[in-house]
């Protein structure tokens, strides 16, 4: 259409009619004279709009997904972090429960033996310190630790302090071949010296070659002069085997230590010795032996029985 005076006049007229219809429609509401025309237009153009919407909506959803992907990724990442934290917490709680149990046992031992202890955690193991069987603990001179102090846990004798730094110390374990401790047998008071043998039982030389000792007997530390390096009464272990007496001046027994040296975690350094020897009071209660089941056999007479009247065997 050419831009002429007539075309411009027609455009102005159409715009004026459009405004007039909008005004009439707004004022008429649902009774508007153009309501029917609007419904007819909806009937014609509605399916087309739906088709266009169906064709366009996946793209819109994809765009929305891309737009929200950052926040969704953040939520997933946060959930993953929360899940990992929960698992770590559960694992930590299990470990804490185990450590609390160890601490309770050690406090019981310290209370029964009247030992003043400084609690510590094992932070390193191995031969890095120059010994075959040693551990490093997280207390040192700043905590009042000195060389040649007894180290124990809730099960019994762990070892003795050999090297002290400002904040850490090295402990020589009781199963080290260079370790020796004076021992006393429970009840019989037979004295001896226990030496470490690595992952094998402790070897104990009893001073009495004719000592009456048997499997299952228990030993505690005898104690040292001025309680260094060993305080008395700390549980050492249980006799596993007794060498036959050969008439010598000493007698050898082999002892399973109460402490598991490969599972050390919470230990205590005895910083204050007891005022008197606790003797056997620190030993745990003896295990109650399980009763041996008794089997009773009942004999049932067979079909080939003897006739009591004539003493003859009844044949089938």
UniProtKB/TrEMBL annotation:
Superkingdom of origin: Bacteria
The keyword Transport is annotated on this UniProt entry: no
Domain Rod shape-determining protein MreC beta-barrel core: 130-270
Region (Disordered): 275-316
Bias type Polar residues, positions: 302-316
Aminoacyl-tRNA synthetase listed as a keyword: no
Keywords in alphabetical order: Cell shape
PANTHER family named among the record's database cross-references: CELL SHAPE-DETERMINING PROTEIN MREC (PTHR34138)
Function: Involved in formation and maintenance of cell shape.
Family note: Belongs to the MreC family.
Protein name as annotated: Cell shape-determining protein MreC
Species classification: Bacteria, Bacillati, Actinomycetota, Actinomycetes, Kitasatosporales
